[in-house]
C-alpha cells in the first residue's frame, strides 16, 4: 500500500519558516501592505517634485520612511509572537503525519486524538526544498519536513496528491513547487 510517514520533533525554526512562507506567499494582506507602502513612497516622491515648502516635503518623507520600516517589523513581531505561544504549548512534542490514498492523518504525541484530513479538503499544496505545506484554507495548514519522512518518499507524496486532490476547472490539482528541481531528484 502507498503510504508516507513523517515523524518530526517540534522545532521553533520550522514553525517560523511555515508562518513566514504563509505571510509572503499565501497571505493577501501582505500584498495590500506592500502596495500601500509603495503608494506612500510614490506620494513622497510626488510631493518632493511639486511642493516648495521643506516642512511638507520632510513630513511626507518621514511618513514614507516610517511606513516602509515599521510595516515589516510589525509583521515579523506577529510571527514571532505566534511561534513563541506555540513553543510554550508544544515544546517537547512530536508530530506524526501519515499520508495514504484515502486521507492524511496528523497526531501530536502530547495531544489526545488525531486530525484526519481528506484529500478533498485540501485547497493547495506548496512544496519548497525543505518542506511540503498542505493548506486546508487560506489561514490553516500543516507541513511535512522532507528530511523527516521515515517511510515512503516525496515522489510518492506528489503521486498521491496528483491522483487524489480535487481538480480545478482546468482539470489540474493545486500543487505548486517553489524551487527548481535537480534532475537526479525526480
Secondary structure layout plus pairing:
Layout: E1 3-9, H1 12-26, H2 28-50, H3 54-90, E2 94-100, E3 103-108, E4 114-118, E5 124-127, E6 131-137, E7 140-145, E8 149-151, H4 154-164, E9 175-177
Parallel strand pairs: 5-9
Antiparallel strand pairs: 1-2, 1-8, 2-3, 3-4, 5-6, 6-7
pLDDT < 50 runs, ≥5 residues:
none
Main pleated sheet: 5 strands, antiparallel
Q: Number of DSSP helices?
A: 4
Number of domains: 2
Helix/sheet category: alpha+beta
- Order of strands in the sheet with most strands: 4-3-2-1-8
Strand/helix succession: EHHHEEEEEEEHE
Radius of gyration, Cα only, in angstroms?
21 Å
Corresponding CATH architecture of the largest domain? Roll
Helical percentage: 40-55%
- Total number of β-strand segments? 9
* β-sheet strand percentage: 25-35%
> Which overall shape is indicated by the principal axes computed on the Cα atoms?
elongated
Query: Looking at CATH, which topology of the largest domain would you report?
Result: PH-domain like
What keywords describe this structure?
five-stranded antiparallel sheet; alpha+beta; 186 residues; elongated; four-stranded mixed sheet; 2 domains
Amino acid at each position: 500500500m502507498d503510504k508516507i510517514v513523517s515523524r518530526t520533533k517540534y522545532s521553533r525554526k520550522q514553525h517560523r519558516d511555515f508562518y513566514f512562507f504563509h505571510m509572503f506567499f499565501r497571505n493577501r494582506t501582505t500584498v495590500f501592505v506592500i502596495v500601500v507602502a509603495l503608494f506612500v513612497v510614490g506620494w513622497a516622491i510626488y510631493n518632493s517634485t511639486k511642493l516648495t515648502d521643506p516642512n511638507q516635503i520632510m513630513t511626507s518623507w518621514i511618513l514614507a520612511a516610517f511606513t516602509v520600516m515599521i510595516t515589516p517589523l510589525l509583521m515579523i513581531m506577529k510571527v514571532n509572537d505566534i511561534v513563541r505561544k506555540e513553543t510554550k504549548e508544544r515544546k517537547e512534542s512530536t508530530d506524526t503525519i501519515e499520508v495514504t490514498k484515502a486521507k492524511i492523518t496528523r497526531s501530536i504525541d502530547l495531544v489526545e486524538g488525531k486530525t484526519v484530513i481528506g484529500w478533498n479538503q485540501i485547497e493547495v499544496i506548496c512544496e519548497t526544498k525543505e518542506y511540503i505545506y498542505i493548506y486546508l484554507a487560506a489561514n490553516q495548514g500543516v507541513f511535512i519536513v522532507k528530511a523527516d519522512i521515515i517511510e515512503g518518499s516525496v515522489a510518492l507524496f506528489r503521486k498521491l496528491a496528483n491522483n487524489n486532490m480535487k481538480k480545478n476547472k482546468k482539470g489540474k490539482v493545486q500543487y505548486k513547487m517553489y524551487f527548481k528541481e535537480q534532475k537526479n531528484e525526480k
